[in-house]
UniProtKB/TrEMBL annotation:
Superkingdom to which the source organism belongs: Bacteria
Gene3D superfamilies xref list: Periplasmic binding protein-like II
InterPro entries in the record: PBP_domain, Phosphate_ABC_transporter
SUPFAM superfamilies in alphabetical order: Periplasmic binding protein-like II (SSF53850)
Descriptive protein name: Phosphate ABC transporter substrate-binding protein
Signal sequence interval, chain numbering: none
PBP domain boundaries: 35-274
Record keyword Signal present: yes
Sequence intervals crossing the membrane: none
Keywords on record: Signal
Native organism: Flavobacterium limi
Length: 306
């Protein structure tokens, strides 16, 4: 009898040990704000800055893995609403109608602004005129031909750049004639560099942080200075003009987290909005939401080395 009791006790001990060990293993694989893996869906027009953020984030937190999937703005918002993705980076905040949908789904999206980006107009290097009025582009989008513009080239019919320009022009649809669309900003840049008279509409991040294979192509482009609707001056999509709110095509960038728990999405958003992430934004040529401070060390004496 005693032998049976000891055997039963041994079996229970082994089972408890196995359960504890399994729980320990499960806890070690559990996602936290700085550990685990997550897929972030990114607006294709701002892909370069997000790649930089991910590289530094993963290099700082070795147990964190962030994979990027690029899509158009309309596609990624649709995926977010249909729970196909939980974390996105986009060039606009959620609309009230979208927020209402999340309320019905009992989801509270965490929206974190982290940078000011801009839309840039580009032309072939052979075009000596590097100035353009925003009203001229708006009129062209309304179907009014202009000898200055042979064609207007967008990345994607569902992109944030198309939505931004349609909102400015107050048009529901873009004209069928004279407006072209591809799939990515890279394709727009290549097409404009090879075709005279075309005006490309791209995210300025692709120009400030070109990939190695795009650098020579960008040298064949002019980045146009733009006159706003209520201005007589022309401004470029430079960091300085964006910071002083002079450039008329600036826009905010957001990371929207719908995970619904304290996970890696929250950690990545905090990183981007934090000191290191904001320094990465500043270095990229975009404008951070919070300008990183500088520490100055003041000395009373100077030590000259021999």
């Amino acid at each position: 009898m005693l032998k049976n009791v000891k055997s039963l006790g041994l079996v229970v001990f082994i089972l408890l040990f196995a359960m504890c060990n399994q729980k320990s293993k499960s806890d070690s694989n559990k996602e936290t704000i700085l550990k685990g893996s997550i897929e972030v869906t990114v607006d294709e027009t701002v892909k370069p800055i997000v790649e930089d953020q991910v590289a530094v984030f993963e290099g700082t937190y070795y147990d964190a893995k962030v994979s990027i999937k690029t899509k158009s703005e309309a596609e990624l918002i649709n995926d977010l609403l249909n729970k196909k993705t939980k974390v996105v980076i986009t060039a606009r905040d959620l609309t009230q109608a979208e927020k209402d949908k999340f309320v019905k789904l009992k989801i509270n999206p965490r929206v974190t602004p982290f940078a000011t980006d801009a839309i840039a107009f580009i032309s072939n290097k052979s075009n000596n005129d590097t100035l353009i009025a925003l009203q001229t582009v708006i009129d062209f989008m309304k179907g009014e031909p202009n000898p200055r513009i042979k064609g207007l080239v967008f990345d994607n019919p569902n992109s944030s750049t198309v939505r931004f320009m349609k909102d400015l022009a107050k048009v529901k649809d873009i004209p069928a004639d004279g407006v072209f669309s591809f799939k990515t900003n890279e394709e727009v840049i290549k097409f404009v560099a090879e075709n005279d008279g075309m005006i490309g509409v791209v995210g300025v991040n692709w120009l400030s942080q070109p990939s190695p294979e795009m650098q020579d192509i960008i040298h064949n482009l002019n980045v146009l200075s733009v006159k706003g609707l209520n201005s007589n001056e022309y401004f470029s999509p430079t960091q300085n003009d964006i910071a002083e709110q002079k450039y008329p095509l600036a826009r905010e960038l957001y990371i929207i987290n719908c995970q619904g728990y304290t996970g890696l999405g929250m950690g990545f958003a905090s990183f981007i909005a934090g000191d290191i992430g904001q320094r990465i934004v500043l270095k990229s040529g975009l404008m951070p939401v919070k300008t990183p401070g500088r520490k100055l060390q003041i000395r009373n004496t100077i030590n000259n080395k021999e």
